[in-house]
Structures are given as C-alpha cells and as structure tokens.
Amino acid sequence: MVETVALLSAALVAVFYKERDGYYFLISAGITLLLGVSGILAGLKASPLIGRREGSLIVTFIWVVFTIFGLLPFWISGSIPSFTDAFFETISGFTTTGASILNNIEELSHSILYWRSLTHWIGGLGIIVISLALLPVFGVSGTQLFVAESAGPTKDKIHPKINETAKRLFLIYIILTASESILLRFGGMGWFDAICHSFGTVATGGFSTKQASVGYWDSPYIQYVIAIFMLMSGVNFSLYYFGFKNKFRKLFENEELKYYLITLLSFSIIVAVSLINFSEAFSFAKIELAWREAFFNVTACMTTTGFATADYMFWKTFTWVLLLIAMIIGASAGSTSGAIKMVRIVIVVKYCYYEIKKLVHPNAIIPVKYNGLIVKADVITRILAFVLLYLFTVAIGILILSMSGMGFQESIGGLITCLGGVGPGLGQVGPAGNFSAVPEFSKWFLSFIMLIGRLELFTVLVLFTPAFWRK
Amino acid sequence: MFEGVFLLSAIFVALIYKESVISHFLITSGIAIFLGLIFFIAGRNASPTIGKREGSVIVTSIWIWFSVIGLLPYWLSGSIPNITDAFFETMSGFTTTGASILNNIESLPNSILYWRSLTQWIGGLGIIVISIALLPIFGFSTVQLFSAEATGPTKDKIHPKMSETAKRLLAIYVVLTVAQVLLLVIAGMGWFDAVNHSYTTMATGGFSTKQASVGYWSSPAIQYIITFFMFFAGVNFTLFYFMIKGRFNRIKENEEFKFFIVFTLICTALIGISIYDFSLPASFSHIEKIFRDSLFTVVSMISTTGYVTVDYMQYKPVVWLLLLIVMLTGASAGSTAGGMKMIRVLLVVKYAYYEFKRIIHPNAFFPVRYNQHVVRDEVITRVLAFIMLYIMIIVVGAIVLSFSGMGFLESVSGMITCISDVGPGLGSIGPAFSFSEIPTFSKWFLSFVMLIGRLEVFTVLIIFTPIFWKR
Fold first, then answer.
1. B344-382 burial string, b = 16+ CB within 10 Å, else e?
2. Residue B161 pLDDT > 80, yes or no?
3. Which of A2, A232, A241, A453 is the 20 to 30 A CA-CA neighbour of B347?
4. Which residues 329-348 in chain A show a CB within 8 A of chain B?
5. Per the CB < 8 Å rule, is B317 touching A402?
C-alpha cells in the first residue's frame, strides 16, 4: 500500500520536465521507487489485520514519509538549501497548510513551483480519501463526524464500498480542479499559474506562484473565481455527490452547510464594513473593492486555504481577531479544509444552549439535534473533548513558540494558522511576510503542529500516550 | 432579606468616619437604609418560595444594587466625578476584580480608600456565602463542584445546616483577615494600609492604597506575607475548616488543592527562568528577588487578586502569555478567587486523557475519578460546557472591545482579566497603568463582564435566554 502511493508520487514527479531541474526530480523519483520497492518486499509477510492503533501509526507515518521524500526535489536542486526549510515547506504542502519560508517565490524554476503546488493537491486528495473512506473503517473517532456516523444510521454515506466512495470523491476533486483552471485561464491567467492555483485552491492549501499571492492579479474576475472555488472546496464533498444524484434535499437540510455559509457571509460583511472609509465620497467601486477584499480574505482564512489579496495587518485590529476566529472554526467536515470544522462548532454551541435550558428545566429531556436526528451523548462529549484539546493545543503551542523567541503576535498567529492548516499568520508571519525568519526549533515545532492539525489531533497524539504502547 | 443586606452595607458605610467626606457617607447610608426599608415593606407579602430563576435574578440584582448605591460615596464626594468611572470602580470592588480607573490613588481621602477596600471585602464575603450556602439550594450546578455535590454523597460538606455553614465560613474569613493585618503591621506596614490590604487580599480583590500597588513596599517580609495570604484566599475554605477540626487527611486527599500547589509552582518556575538574567553573576539576593517576584506575580494572578510588585510588561511576551493562562484557570472552587477554577481544569484534563484511552480501547470502561469518587457523566459535560462558554464569551468580548477601539493586547487581556476578576491586563491597561483611558462603552461592557465572571457565567446569562421568561 505504501509502495503504490510512493510510486504514484514519484511518477507524477517524473512527469513534468519543464526545465533543467527535471534531473533532480528523476533522482527523487528513483530514490522513492527504490525505497518503495524495499518497503513492499519487507512488508509482504505482514499480517493484513489493521486495528485502530495501526491505523494511527500508518496514517502518521505516510505523511512523514511523503514529506521526507517530497522535500528531496527542493533540497537536492538547491532551491531550498536548508533541510529544515525544505521539510517545513514540504509538510506545509502535504498538510495543505501553505505557510512558506520562501522570500522570493518567483525566482524558482517552474518545475519546482509545480511540485510545490502538487504537494498541496496530493495532500488534499489524500485527506479526502483518508477521512471519508479509510479512517471510518479504522474507527478513528476524530473524523467520524459526518452526519452518517455521528447520528446513527449510515444514511448519508455516498456508497457502501470504500473503493467506490474513494473513486467518486477523486472524480469530484478532479472536476473542481479542472473547471477552476479553465475559468482562470479565461480570466487571463497563464495555464501554468491557473493550474498551480487550482491545485492550491481545491486542496485549500494556498501556495501561490507569486510572492504577493493572489494579490498579484488585480482582476476582480480572477479574485472572485478563486474565492468561489475556495468556498466550494470548503463544502462537504459528499454533498457534491448528492448534487449529482439530484438529491438536492440533502443539500438544503444540511445544517453544517447553512451555518458555514451564514458565518462566512456575516464575517465578510462585518470586515467589509470596517474597510469602508465613511468619510470619503461614496462610490460603487470603493464598496465593491472593500467587499471583494473582505470576502476573499475571510473565505481564504475560514476555508483554511490561505491565499491573500490584501495585507490584513493594515486593517483594523478587531478584523485580525475575526480572521483568527475564522481560522480556528474552519469550514465543513468532509472537505479539504482544516481546523475544528463547522459541524463541531455547531454542536458545541447547541450543547451550551442545551445546558442553559437544563438549568431552567432540570427535569426535562431536551436532546441536541443535528440535521433532524438526535445526537448521542457520547458523540457530544467526544466533540467537546476535541474542541477543548484543540484550544489547549493552541494555548500550549503559543507558549512554546513565544519561549522559543517569537513575538506575541507571531506566536499567536503562527500557531493558529499552522494548526488550522491556513498559511498566513500575524505580524512578521503575516500575509506580507513569511516564516523564513522564524527560529529553527519553531520551524520543526510548527511542522509538527501542521501534521497534528491535519490529522485531527487524536490520530497523532494518541501515539504519545503510554496506553497506546501497552499491548 | 433584601433589607437585612442593605442595612448591613449601610452600617459598614457609617463606620468609616475618617475625614471631612463623612457627610457623603452619611447621605449614602441614609439612602441605603431608606431604600432597604421600602423594599422590605414592599416585599412583605411576597411568597417565600424561591426557585432557580428567582435565585438568578436575586443574586444578579443584589450585585447591581450594591454597585449603584456603593458608587455614591465616590460620586457625591467628587473623588470620582464621572458616573461611569464610579460605577466601574464600585463593580470592580464588589466583584473583587480590582481593575481601577484611578490614576492618583494616593490623593484620595482615607475614608474613600477605606470604602474602596471594604467593597472588596464585602464582595468576597458575599461570594463565599452565596456560593457555598445559598446557590446550592437554588440548585445551581456550576457551584456544585465541590467534591461533596459533584460526586454524590455529601461527605465534604462542613455542616448540614446552611446558616451554620455560613457562620463558620464567615469566621474563617474574619480570622484570616485579622491574622494578616497583625502580621503586616508587625512587618512594618501602617495600620491603615494593613487593614485595607488585608481586606482586599482575603477577597482576592487587589485594590491597593498605593498607585504602585504592593510594589510600593520593597520589604521582602511584606511581600511574602501577602503572597501567603493570597494563596490562602485561593484555597477552598472548607479545607480550613477541616484543618481546624484536625481532619488533615481530608486536606491531603483533596486533588484540587494538590493540583493548585503544583500548577502554581510550575508556573512560578517557568516565569522565574524566563526573567532570570543569566548574564549577571549568580548571587543569592538576585535569585531570591527573581523567585519573590515570580512567586508573587503568579500567586497574585492565579488567585485572581491582582496585586503587582513588578511591571510584567517589561518581561518577555512568554511571561504575559503564562500570566494570561494563569488568570484563566483561577484558583480553587470554594474560595474567593475567580477564573474557571482549578477543579474544572483538572476534571477536563483528566477527561481528555480518558478520551485518548477510549480511542485505544473503545469497549473498556474508564471512569474519571476525583478525590477517589467516580465523576458522573453529566457533571463532566456540564464542566465542559462551562469552559466552552467561558472561552466563547472571551472571544466575543475581545471582538466587541476591539470594535469599540481598544488595541489587540488590551482587548484580549482586558476581557480575560475582567471575566476572571483579576485586575491588571496587558499593554495600556497593564500594571503600570489604569483603565481610565478606555472608551466609555468599554467601561460599561467590562463592568458587565466582571459581573458575569463573578457569578460564574450561567447565573447571569440565563436571564438573557428566552426560555427563562417562558412560564
């Protein structure tokens, strides 16, 4: 299994010989192939039984191994000479984070930039397949939040067989990517940039081929196209399948989608209003610009993509707080976005209200409902535990970062953005900056944070508990 | 009931005839007695049954009434001419917060300063009586966290009768206050300052008679005495009762107490290491000062008192973050401290670990234990909901404050310090400054936040839910 997937990656690598760097990719592909083959040979006799613990180990291992091999093109070619930086950039790719240590993106060769965006696309694909198709089999609770599993009877599952499900998701993923590329090309972007940005959008990653990110293109058309595709990438992919099958009612009934859209729009409106300078003359163009900037950047943060069209450090302070909150909330479960995910937030908020109701009427039984079905108590507590663990990780992570020497804003923004898989943070690691000046230790630490954020915390952290290792 | 409580306050007011502002106090007591009598007469025929909802309304209005009447001495005498400021300072008194709008404390007459400290002492007294004796009758779950109610059989309750319990707690409170006064006087503080500081220490309030807070006295003895008493004030008062009765094993078994000590020491060590200047030659006096400063600051913030001996804004950001965390956790339940309370933090940490174990062994049953008893599920979910709500309020509050014009540091820290009833924040509301410069709206908002925090969130917020008003 590991081999197939490593070979896939190597083959893709070998595909794009755009410049002289093709040489480095061949080397990387060769190494990967070699190790992949040895991996298979070594594992031929292993028992096919995979339990929860093995599942955790495998998934974590896959991400780390991919990163190690994936950094080779950057490192060997000298594009990113520091090993730490190369690892950081690659794991930022596969976890679809998009935080970058590059100071001069445009001077890198096309093939390197392509590989960079491809790591995002692969990472996004990987997370969709793993979370919608594989992990439920392992029974890892962190991702069993889709309406299907969390509410009992599996009525929302796309298709009973894993392979079938995976194939359909892959299809939806490709269709979105292709349509975005075509639309962007129409908008005036070159094919290369269009494809790379589509990779980064659908994976909700955020790597751009320009140092100024999407802000490089002033065109409203391009910005709106990307914004809308970001929004679409933040939707539960199973809903697209229902759309195809004409089961539109499922779409309307989906509470997460409703809250996702409402929250996104309200945050955008609030930020847009704050950007309008009411003392200046009223003009449609100014309002459109404010709305566009607000909508794009709020969507980028909430879907955890991380593209930027404006340096929000110049906006009013409370907008940073709003953006940080959007980065913590995230978009829908079942999409490529990271962070806590809307469905969990919705259930937690409903639960708090339920507790208040119970204070007034202690003897009544008022169940928490989601999508019309009652949510079981153990599901609620599991969700509460996840949210708490997430917040706890944020707090401790910020402390560790500031201890390592990062500033107040950088520690807070850096941690939240990496844990949520977003990309830009605050201050020096904000949209106009990057992570190059961050201390070595912090780069490794943040790489780790990106990993645990992508794999929904429990999957990786369980490896660190003593209970995991007892037989 | 109302009348008794008003008269109490009025009598206290009448006691402090120190200077020419006597007339203002007499006027205030007059008003208080008058209004008290009116209410008594008006309430004669009211039914004596008090349910949860009434309990909420009563407790909340008591605090507000006290603040409205309590601000009169400041306002009438012209010490605090602005009514917003006067209300803020008074509410900060009764909620034992200690956030101040005063820029020149030492210029105020002694009787005003005495009243200021007294508001905190009364507030502390009130919270002990109300949370240990009254609210459990109303059935407020949030305070039923003492090992007694949280885990079933009421073995930790001091004494079965409510008024007996209240009397004993009052006795402990008074004894500790008097002890601190004596020790401070022996250490060199004048009688007036000693009494004022003991009032605000035991209430974990933090108002000082000096603009420099306790930093005014550089005597190690005075600082250590106050540190110890702040710590005592942060301990569950029932433990003092057990100590008197010689039941020491009860104290040793108390997990919250142990956790409180350990957590405080760890934070002190972390901060001590952060502020230690390794480039200077090691000397005992240097080490002792660092230890004293970090211990004092940590104990002050964790007990939510809010005294300062150093301007921690001069330290690295990691120290600010650690202090914010410590302000959030608060000290023990059953003390006058604010914050989330150690017991909740402890239960949640245990619960998170429990969830990890469950992921590995989904079919095994691992109960969360506290003080040897099993904690019921509903208690855990209630604690989780509280913490979630607390954090949500902080987030929303920070947005509201930054919207009103406060900076990032000030919004976040202002919210945290007021909801946990600590006192000093970060930046321009840090230990070297005051709350005088913040917008008027923010002062009213923060007064409300102080109230919510003191009354453990649910008590006040429940009044705002539609369900509360339905019959």
1. bbbbbeebbebbbbbbbeeeeeeebebbebebeeebbbb
2. no
3. A453
4. 348
5. yes
